[in-house]
Amino acid sequence: MTKKIMVTGGAGYIGSHMVRLLNQQNHDVVVVDNLSRGNADVVKNAELIIEDIGNSAGMIDIFKAHKPDAVMHFAAYAYVGESVDRPELYYANNVSGTLNLVEAMRETNTNNLVFSSTCATYGQPNKLPITESTTQNPINPYGQSKLMVEQILSDYAVAYGLRSTALRYFNAAGSAEDGSLGEQHDPETHLLPLILFEALRIKNGGNPADTNLKVFGDDFDTRDGTCIRDYIHVNDLGSAHIAAVMRMIDTPDLGAEQFNLGTNQGYTVLEVIDACRKVTGEDIQFKRIARRAGDPPELVADASLAMKTLGWTPEFADIHLSIQHAWDWFSAHPPTKL
Ligand code: UDP
User: Fold this and answer.
1) Domain that holds residue 306
2) Among 6, 12, 166, 183, which residue's Cβ finds the most Cβ atoms within 10 Å?
3) By alpha-carbon position, which residue is closest to atom 24 of ligand 1?
C-alpha cells in the first residue's frame, strides 16, 4: 500500500537512491535536507524542503504539514577520517540532530523511523562475520555517534513506544542500474569512486604510473595485508528500508530493532582494485601509504537476520555489478578534476 515517507538527507548519495526506489513503488515522498553536503538536483519526483534536522520549530512544522507514515533518516556526516579530526561535527549533527528529529516526531505523534546506522559501531569486532549480537565498541567518533543514536532509539521505544529499525550498513557501493543517479561526494574519500576516478584518468590518456590512488596500510592482519570490507549495492540498502518500514507499520508492538545490511562477503582493498581493473579494462595502479586513523582491519556482515526477519534478499550482491553501475555513472558524469 502507498505510504507517505519523509526522507531526511534525500539529497545525498544513499538518500537520493532511496527516493528513486520509493517513487518506483509509488510512495509519496517528502525530502528534508539542509544541502550542506547534498545536491538539490538529485531530488527528482519529490518535494524538497531545505531545513536542518536540528531546527526544532522548523521540523515540527514539517511533520504537522506532511504527517508522514514513516521517516527514513539518512541526514548525517559519514566520513570516518573527518570524524577523528573534527568529532564535534559528528556529535552535533549525528547525535543532537537526531535527538531533535525524534523529539519532533514525539511532539507530533509521528511513529516508525528507519535509521542509517553502520558497521562502524562494531569497531574492531571480536569475531567474524559480524552478527547483531557482536559487541559494539566503535573506534572512531563516526561509529560512536551512530551507536549513541541507537541507544537513544532503544530508550525512546521503552519510554514512548517509538518504533525504529536501525540498519547497520556495511560499505555502500554502486549506483542506479539505469544510470539515472550516482555517487557524488565532495570531497570524495571512498575507495570505490577513487579507484574509478583513477581508471577514468587513464582512459583519458593519463599515464598509469602517475597514479593518484593510495592504499591506506598493507600491514593489517588480513590475507593480503589490506583492509577487508563488505560492499553492498545502494539499491539493496534501499529495498531493505522499504521492507523495514512495512514491517513497522504492520507490527504495532515492535520496539527498537537492529539489523546488519551486507552481503556476507568481504573484499580486501587490493581485491577491489583488481575487480575494478576487470570491469573497466584499465591498468589501474596505486601507491601504498600508511594506515588511515580509525580503520578496523576487517568488517564483514552476517546479514542473515535481516534476510530472515525482513524477508529481504540483496539483488545486486556481486561486487562487479556495483562497480559496473558506478563506472557507467562516472563515465557519463566525470568529476571536473581527475
Ligand atoms: N581506502 C584506501 N584508499 C582510499 C580510500 C579508502 O585504501 O583512498 C581503504 C580504507 O582504508 C578502508 C577501505 O578502503 O579500508 C574502505 O574505505 P572507505 O572510505 O571507502 O569506507 P569506510 O570503510 O571507511 O566506510
Assistant:
1) 191-229+264-332
2) 12
3) 80
